[in-house]
Amino acid sequence: MTNERLEQHAKDLVEYALELGRKKGAEYAQMQMDNEDRFRNFRIASEVAMMDNAGQSMMNYLMKSFMSIGRFVKFSGKVEMNESLDDRFADLLNYTFMLYGWIKEELDEQ
Question: Which residues contact 62 (CB under 8 A, 6 or more apart)?
Fold first, then answer.
């Protein structure tokens, strides 16, 4: 694969991930009637699972996505997935973006 082609794949994936994140974010906001706290569900999940913070909950989702992609690689794509490979990578990016945002927010509050 050429550098140009790889860069185009990366741009396409980031664009797709951001669009998917906007759609899911809008759905979450409607479900919780709160458009102000993008991390609300992770905060609640961390409390229910007795975690120390929302970042740990985000890490769980990040690792779940990473492990799903890992299974796909391990079995050379011969794994049944309920989401497309693009969706899995987009989720991985979005959880990474959210975790990064949460960490930045935590550092700003210190």
Answer: 92, 95, 96, 99
Q: What is the pTM of this model?
A: 0.81
CA distance 95 to 5: 25
Both tokens of residue 8? 């185009």
CA distance 93 to 102: 14
How many separate helices (H) and strands (E) can be counted in the chain?
A: 4, 0
Report residue 21 as tokens: 């994140």
Q: Count of residues for the chain?
A: 110
43-79 pLDDT, tens digit each: 888 888 888 898 999 999 999 999 999 999 999 888 8
